[in-house]
Amino acid sequence: MSIATHESHNQHISQQFNQSLSELRNHLLAMGGMVEKQISDAVDALINGDTELAEAVQVTENLVDDMEVLIDEECTQVIARRHPAASDLRLVMSTVKMIADLERIGDEAAKIAKMAIRLSDQGKPTNGFVEIRHIASHVSQMVNSALDSFARFDADRALEIIRKDHTVDAEYATAIRSLITVMMEDPRSISQVQNVMWVLRALERIGDHAANISEHVIFMVRGKDVRHMKIQEVEAALKDKRGK
Amino acid sequence: MSIATHESHNQHISQQFNQSLSELRNHLLAMGGMVEKQISDAVDALINGDTELAEAVQVTENLVDDMEVLIDEECTQVIARRHPAASDLRLVMSTVKMIADLERIGDEAAKIAKMAIRLSDQGKPTNGFVEIRHIASHVSQMVNSALDSFARFDADRALEIIRKDHTVDAEYATAIRSLITVMMEDPRSISQVQNVMWVLRALERIGDHAANISEHVIFMVRGKDVRHMKIQEVEAALKDKRGK
Q1: In chain B, what residues touch A225 (CB-CB under 8 Å)?
Q2: What is the dihedral of CA A178, A181, A186, A190, to 10 degrees?
Q3: What domains are defined for chain B?
Q4: Whole-prediction pTM value?
Q5: ipTM of the complex as predicted
Q6: Relative to the CA of A142, which of A136, B112, B156, B224 has its CA 20 to 30 Å away?
């Protein structure tokens, strides 16, 4: 939907209603900002062996959880009081799902923070940090773009993120294979490398959740449920809709 | 409109409404049944090296995905057409979330099926199968009980499942520790044991999702959002509500 259509659609809706929806949107973006910071802090804590920062990430997790409960309640209130329909209802229903994905991203960041503490006890590992940095930078960008595509109602940008998730999955698989080789060549490193692998897994999951958020954005903007579709099907579905 | 006609009109509406809600319930339980079968088939395929069964699990995943999209659409329709309020709205909103958890359980079962195929290529591993059987039986029971607590609106039963998830998490941690020792003692087993560890991780995630479903059941029945609460807080919240 173009911004113009979106705006004119909203024009006949009461101001209170608009305000509720715009509050929802702002709260989701605020929650997203917290989660983005959690990812970068967790990865920094890991790379620099900064256990204080790692502990701070675990504390922030509670705030993120509270945000989820709060926004979820707001969504229910908007439905109960304002009976949104069509694209407004899609916005609310998508918000319910997107905050669940954001909360899970926060969970994964907290797991990385936990591993940061564990790895700092074991001494600085020399393996896997390059891969962690690389994949972390990719998934952070994905989360950032997903929030941006939500803020701008931009389905094309959301599609790019789903494409990028395939690249991250491939990079993850390569990293895991190379770490298994490291373990085989140096069995003393097993315990440490295992923790690095859990971190990579958490990052890969963050990428998945960013892709989920993007699917919800596409549903919200285009009314097309593209979950479980192959990327070519998603591309076709979006073209299809645009042609109409 | 006479009062009689008006009442019969209302009765008709409420009958339709009840029918929609009962359809939602039945569809969720049907989806749950499919997912339960996926877990047991995936684990059987793994234990018996049955690659055909493993492939069947991967095919069923598509059906589970379709069910999610279908039920999700039904929930939106019920909200748009029938404007449910209070406990009816809680039922619909909880259903939206529970099917997302069921779909993710299906995903994890498909991952186990993938590992079953990979492990059958590597020859039968001797390590970790006891743990897999044990934890698989626990999380299968959890999923079954979660669906049951939903069907019966039974918040106390749901609470038991959340308690059980803590036991499973502890068993999972013990299993992982013992497998890391196995890898250290026999580095040739690393690649195989790593796959067993991914299976255990998938099972542990299934337990988490069963616990999530239970939290949604508690919200649906008691109107109390107990996500992110400690188990003691959940117990207190349920007692509190009952005392009123």
Answers
A1: 69, 72-73
A2: 70
A3: 8-243 (1.20.58.220)
A4: 0.92
A5: 0.91
A6: B112
